[in-house]
Amino acid sequence: MKKLKLMLAGAFVATCCLAGNAAAPKARATEKPKHYSEWMTRSEMKRVPKSYMLDFSNRPKWSYVMGIELESMLDTYLRYGGEDIKNYCIEYTDTMINPAGEIRGYKIKDYNLDNVRTGHFVTRMYEHFPEEKNLRAMNMLMLQLNDQPRTKEGVYWHKAIYAYQVWLDGIFMGLPYRVLTATKLYSPEQALPIYDDAVEQVKSTYDRTYDPKTGLNRHAWDESREMFWSDNETGLSQHCWGRAQGWYTMALVELLDALPADYARRGEVVELLTRTFDNVIKWQDPKTGVWYQVMDSPDRDGNYLESTASAMFAYSLLKAANKGWVDAKYRDAGIKAYKGILDQFIREEADGTISLTDCCSVAGLGPGVSPAVLAAAPKVKENKRRDGSYAYYLSEKIRDNDAKGLGPFIWASLEMESLGYDVDSFKKNKKK
Q1: Which of 49, 252, 281, 304 is deepest in the core (most CB within 10 A)?
Q2: In the prediction, which pLDDT does 431 show?
Q3: Largest CA distance in the chain
Q4: H helices of 35-161, where?
Q5: How far apart are CA 128 and CA 123, in angstroms?
């Protein structure tokens, strides 16, 4: 695919931005929030007064985690208002992006898809609160994706140091941003190849990671079959990790949200999302309505119900059904999941805030690197702990209020609230 010439299209949202600002609800008087989206947003703002210190940080950090949580807060502001919420979001972009559009701590040559995801939040902010510096940062991230290394089939490598590796995580980190931003910066003719490329990547990734025994998708695939965590025959990692499946599912939802309504290949994404939903629902715990950390092994000793993946599935099911992309039965599964999240994972604290419990803090594969990277940098040491085994996924830390779950929980709450639900619709949670 020919590289697209990046443009500074500063005026593209001038009219809609002003309209978006004018349409934002006025701030409400201080009171106990009536909606879980507001309640969780304000709980996090109380726990972490500076937005650039989210994700348990000890310094300002450019991270996909920040982008996900802050974007959900932006959506809460756009629904209910609150100048403090808006300012909390603006504080992050003002801290992390300098007047020249340079992103603090970002290195384009890392070709790290995780570092692109926060751009999705920046594009959303630029749409409503346009600043030239943010537009420059958006163009830099688009440049990275123009040059991002790919497999022979055209799917992005997860990172430069993770050569030949396709992770479900990376599909979420890179493609929705590229498509959303193309709709804002490029003409329809320039954007069309980006849309087609995104559809091809999600389809290829699904096929390469698909496990016919479970109907789920494995965490990652290694084109080289040389990584210690990959199967020598298939290149697949060992298990379906719940949050990785969640990343992929949300990516499909976000692509549908960004792609133009008249785009000819939307139906291919809807079909893929429906197929994904059908298999995800099969693994929904019938008693609680949520999902396990290692999704494909719910009955094995030590496995646990995990909140971040559960929030991702609840949000995806609810939004897709509310948008009319899929049948109402998927909304029913999403409502069941959301109620399960409230029952299993939401705890009201003594200070009036709420917390999301039972979050897997992180999981990945490696950081062992490919032989090619080792040859180029022989001092790099392979770490075989993150081998994708069942024991590995259970070994990672479990904590409260991980942003990778908080953002999807807020989004799921907004979807429930669009159906007329509020805090009073549910029994008070008694979990301590």
Answers
A1: 252
A2: 47
A3: 61
A4: 36-47, 64-80, 83-96, 114-128, 132-147
A5: 9
Residues 258 and 180 sit within 8 Å (Cβ to Cβ): yes
pLDDT tens for 354-370 read 999 999 999 999 865 44
226, with CB counted inside 10 A (0-12, 13-18, 19+), is middle
- Selection from 403, 391, 400 nearest residue 355 by Cα: 400
- Which pTM value belongs to this model? 0.91
Q: Which parts of the chain have pLDDT scores under 70?
A: 1-30, 367-384, 427-432
Q: Which two tokens stand for residue 175?
A: 């493609």
Judge whether 400 and 359 are in contact, CB under 8 Å. Answer: yes
Distances in Å between the alpha carbon of 265 and those of 143, 170, 256, 268, 348? 25, 22, 10, 5, 44
The C-alpha atoms of residue 287 and residue 284 are separated, in whole angstroms, by: 9
Residue 385 pLDDT: 73
Helix (H, G, I), strand (E, B) or coil at 156: strand
Q: Which pair of structure tokens corresponds to residue 70?
A: 């802050």
Phi, psi angles (nearest 5°) of residue 402: -80, 130
Decide if 407 contacts 326 (C-beta within 8 A). no
